[in-house]
Write a structure and sequence with these properties.
The chain is of the alpha+beta class. It contains 6 helices and 8 strands, in the order H-E-E-E-H-E-E-H-E-H-E-E-H-H. It has one domain: HIT-like (HIT family, subunit A), CATH 3.30.428.
């Protein structure tokens, strides 16, 4: 899809950390911490609820490999996806965010951020497809081996975002919107991105 940034590999090639046959991992703009990366399908799709079944095994393999990479190089990651709700770029992307560093320590992100939102425990990530088919929207969360689907149907677009809640919990309000970060935060973010790239490049 020509107008999609995440489909334009020439534009984002410097931020791609590694590839599999049908997926790639990249570091983004305005990451929330060193080691914050995204897993994306090379095929254009709006969200992972649309992932073709024939790609399921490869997806799980890459997802597990990335989980372990972040866990041992940084800290065990929180995994989340906005689905189509609140997306800034309309291409499926699954976030991996270290749960602890010098700036924060998220022991139970579900209770801290999603307590007031309707949610359900699920056994595997592929169950989001059923929710998406019925409701057209969802938020996916995974931490400490537990998985949830957060129901976003009927919620005002942009009313809830992980970034906003992250900023509220950590006090890092400059990260609330990557598009409007102050210059000082942009410089720190460049350092975080470089740290992340070096870690992947060095195979640490």
């Amino acid at each position: 899809m020509k107008e999609c940034l995440f489909c334009d590999f020439d534009k984002i090639k410097e931020d791609i950390l590694w590839n599999s046959e049908n997926f790639y991992v990249k570091v983004g703009i305005g990451i929330l911490a060193p080691g914050h990366v995204m897993l994306l399908p090379k095929m254009h799709m709006a969200c992972f609820a649309q992932l073709p079944k024939q790609l399921s095994n490869e997806f799980i393999s890459v997802k597990d490999k990335l989980f372990n990479k972040i866990k041992y190089a940084f800290n065990e990651p929180i995994i989340y996806e906005h689905g189509v709700y609140g997306q800034s770029i309309k291409h499926a992307h699954l976030h991996f965010l270290p749960s602890r560093n010098n700036y924060y320590n998220f022991k139970n992100i579900k209770e801290n951020i999603f307590k007031s939102l309707k949610s359900a425990r699920i056994d595997n990530m592929f169950q989001i497809a059923d929710v998406f088919k019925k409701e057209g929207s969802y938020f996916y969360l995974e931490q400490n081996g537990r998985k949830w689907v957060i129901h976003t149907k009927g919620r005002e677009e942009g009313k809830f975002t992980f970034r906003k809640e992250f900023a509220r919990l950590t006090g890092l309000y400059a990260l609330e919107a990557w598009q409007t970060m102050p210059e000082s935060e942009k410089q720190r973010n460049i350092e975080w991105v470089e740290t992340t790239k070096k870690t992947f490049k060095n195979g640490q």
